[in-house]
Amino acid sequence: QVQLVESGGGSVRTGDSLRLSCAVSGRFISSYSMAWIRQARGKERELVAATSWTGKDTKYADTVKGRFTITRDNANNVMYLQMNALRPEDTAVYHCVSENRPGVFLGGQYDYWGRGTQVTVSS
């Protein structure tokens, strides 16, 4: 059974930093692209950042470009999201997700989701 477990969320102030982690079990992530998707209350889901299976290719939403960095440690089956210069509009539940087909980047078909970790940024 594949499980994705996020950690690292919390309540911070504008300008602070957080580092989210996503630990994966039941699947070797080295063949799968992964991403972080966030959902703010009353808003549509937003693809925040994505990484190819090697980590060589990444993509960021315009809203976080230059502030967030997605990385992965395939040897330990973990993905990260370093979030700097946080803003109130970054407040959301952040989910890590896994692409459902190996070797596909930005296919948009995410078959496994973590339950999410809450990030709250106050001004």
Tell me what the structure shows.
With 123 residues, the chain is an all-beta fold. 0% of the residues lie in helices and 50% in strands. The chain is built from no helices and eleven strands. The chain has strands at residues 3-7, 10-13, 18-25, 34-39, 46-51, 58-60, 68-73, 78-83, 92-99, 110-113, 117-122. The strands form two sheets. Strands 2, 4, 5, 6, 9, 10 and 11 form a seven-stranded mixed sheet that branches. A four-stranded antiparallel sheet has the order 1-3-8-7, with no helix packed on it. A hairpin with a 4-residue loop joins β7 and β8. The radius of gyration is 13 Å and the shape is globular.
Q: Any idea what the shape is?
A: globular
Give the helix proportion (percent range).
Answer: under 10%
Uncertain stretches: none
- β-sheet strand percentage: over 45%
Please report the total strand number as a whole number.
Answer: 11
Number of helices: 0
Largest sheet: 7 strands, mixed
Indicate the structural class. Answer: mainly beta
Radius of gyration: 13 Å
Distance between termini? Answer: 40 Å
Order of helices and strands: EEEEEEEEEEE
Average of pLDDT: 97
